[in-house]
């Protein structure tokens, strides 16, 4: 059976931002917004604009799991008012505890499913807050948590099933080195394209695909466009989905057509609004796993795909 690191896995970007609302409190992940007196003075209007450009998913956690999403990009912050931990992206979303309980419920009824949780950003969190989050992980997911494995040579689904492991947790904070069930950031490179251009995005994805990742590591291909403040101001009446995502997801589907899984192929692909075109992208990822894996650089066919 193929190593997990060689499989093609569908993920979502800012996975739980579907829990944001236009009435949510402003979160600390964007300090310029969080500390702006102007933003706070125009709270109702500002929050609506932030929501329009911060909400990257329509499906909630359960819907994403049912649609085949197995990699979750998570950003967490403490809310000063109550000291609890929440999902954030511009605004506060749901509590982390709610998300973990939903995941446990799904995994408990699907014992052969494995998910990857990537805690990408952790804001306004001190030692005690990290302890609180790790306690939630252990209390809710418990024996499902897979300890860090440095040598992935035999890291297959069968290996995980035999041990009852269903959750791999990547934790991008130095505290990871003190907990055996946390995988360090170095084990999953996740380069960010940081562009609003579809042409540049596709070139970025192709470059990552052709170079491929280091042996013994996962690799995330981010198919996301990122608006800056100037871009948002030029498109105040729009939103992320209508202005950027619909077209970028259409192009991603085309780009995926000639790709393969394997040590020199794709590994984890994330995008915004995974429900696009009736979940066409997750379905495409499932289909690609039936292709022969690319095992060497000699097999790697360079993509000649251009934006049409």
TrEMBL record:
Ranges of residues in domain Phosphatidylinositol-specific phospholipase C X: 54-151
Predominant subcellular localization, coarse grouping: secreted
UniProt-listed InterPro entries: PI-PLC_domain, PLC-like_Pdiesterase_TIM-brl, PLCXD1/2/3, PLipase_C_PInositol-sp_X_dom
Keyword Signal on entry: no
PROSITE patterns: PIPLC_X_DOMAIN
GO MF entries: lyase activity; metal ion binding; phosphoric diester hydrolase activity
UniProt-listed PANTHER family: PTHR13593, SI:DKEY-266F7.9 (PTHR13593:SF113)
Protein known as: PI-PLC X domain-containing protein 3
Organism: Araneus ventricosus (Orbweaver spider)
Lineage summary: Eukaryota, Metazoa, Ecdysozoa, Arthropoda, Chelicerata
């Amino acid at each position: 059976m193929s190593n997990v690191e060689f499989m093609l896995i569908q993920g979502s970007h800012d996975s739980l931002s579907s829990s944001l609302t236009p009435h949510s409190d402003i979160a600390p992940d964007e300090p310029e917004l969080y500390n702006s007196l102007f933003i706070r003075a125009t709270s109702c209007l500002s929050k609506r604009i932030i929501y329009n450009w911060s909400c990257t998913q329509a499906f909630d956690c359960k819907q994403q799991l049912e649609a085949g999403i197995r990699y979750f990009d998570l950003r967490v912050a403490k809310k000063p008012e109550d000291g609890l931990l929440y999902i954030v992206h511009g605004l506060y979303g749901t509590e982390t505890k709610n998300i973990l309980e939903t995941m446990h419920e799904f995994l408990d009824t699907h014992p052969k499913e494995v998910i990857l949780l990537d805690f990408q950003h952790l804001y306004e969190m001190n030692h005690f807050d990290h302890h609180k989050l790790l306690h939630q992980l252990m209390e809710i997911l418990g024996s499902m948590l897979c300890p860090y494995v440095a040598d992935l040579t035999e890291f297959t689904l069968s290996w995980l099933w035999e041990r009852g492991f269903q959750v791999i947790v990547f934790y991008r904070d130095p505290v990871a080195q003190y907990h055996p069930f946390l995988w360090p950031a170095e084990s999953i490179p996740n380069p960010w394209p940081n562009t609003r251009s579809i042409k540049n995005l596709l070139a970025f994805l192709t470059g990552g695909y052709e170079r491929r990742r280091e042996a013994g590591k996962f690799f995330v291909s981010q198919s996301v466009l990122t608006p800056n403040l100037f871009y948002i101001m030029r498109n105040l009446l729009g939103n992320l989905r209508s202005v950027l995502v619909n077209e970028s997801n259409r192009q991603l589907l085309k780009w995926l057509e000639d790709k393969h899984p394997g040590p020199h192929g794709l590994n984890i692909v994330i995008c915004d609004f995974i429900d696009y075109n009736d979940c066409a992208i997750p379905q495409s990822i499932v289909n690609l796993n039936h292709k022969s894996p690319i095992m060497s650089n000699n097999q790697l066919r360079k993509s000649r795909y251009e934006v049409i």
